[in-house]
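Lab notebook, bench 4. Still working through the backlog of constructs that have no structural model yet. Next entry is a single chain of 295 residues. Request: give me the structure tokens for it.
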Amino acid sequence: SAILPASSAPMACGGMGMAPQVPLPPGSDSELASLATSINTMAEALNRAKGMERQFLMSVSHDLRTPLTSIRGFAEAIADGAAPDHERAAEVIAAEARRLERLVKDLLDLARVDARRFTLDSRPVDLSEVVSDTSEGFRPKAEELGLHLDVKAAPTGAVMARADPDRLAQVVANLVENALKYATAWVVVGVSSSDQGALVWVDDDGAGVSPPDLPRIFDRLYTSSRQPARQVGTGLGLAIVAELVSAMGGTVRAESPTLAGGGTRMVVTLPPAAAIPGPPPPTQPVSPWVEPRTS
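Model written out:
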């Protein structure tokens, strides 16, 4: 048999590595037609998954290559004596190394949640406390980016949910980080309660999410068509959010547009827990957000 070069091997396996379609012969009986249709449906799903995997790998490869290029360039400039400002060069190298470290951490987190190789300590948690503490940690970054970060407390006081506080903090951090990436002027983080459970929501006034992207924005292998306004995080945060929220028995969804011309809201719903002693607070839906006034 003929030996094919590696570059042509995918073409021999159905074209660009894709699963081949089963042709339906004319005059086929209904059972054969049904079987061919089922096989073709599975092949299409496999092709979509392969395409998403290639897109994801290309995105991750780019995210790895960019900081590596900066690190190598500045390191070589220092070694050759061509770097005019050694301190600035060292700062860039350190920043890009941290970016690589975060990317590797997020990839490992995705692997762990996929294999369910992580622990959960679910217990009654005050969402207001976790959300406030976690969000406040991003205030210096928001100010550096020229963005207004507002953390809204629940109007009824404590909002109790059953969750792992550490994993919940990770969820909130990833959502805030994602909002900072796309926001134009402000990001708002809040908690509330509803008939469905305890809610954490994050709003931003960015360009919003297009309808084709909206149902797939939390998919781990999906690369959104929208371009971030700035580089914050690794781009893997929403996939990690979806996995962690699901593990805690909750759901997460994206809503867009939320403003005239754009805006995005991420809403996490978690199972309610027994409230702190005292009369139970009335349930409140997520209140519509009014753009904050800045001085």
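Notes after review: The radius of gyration is 24 Å. Strands lie at 123-126, 148-152, 160-163, 186-194, 197-204, 251-255, 264-270. Flag for follow-up if needed.
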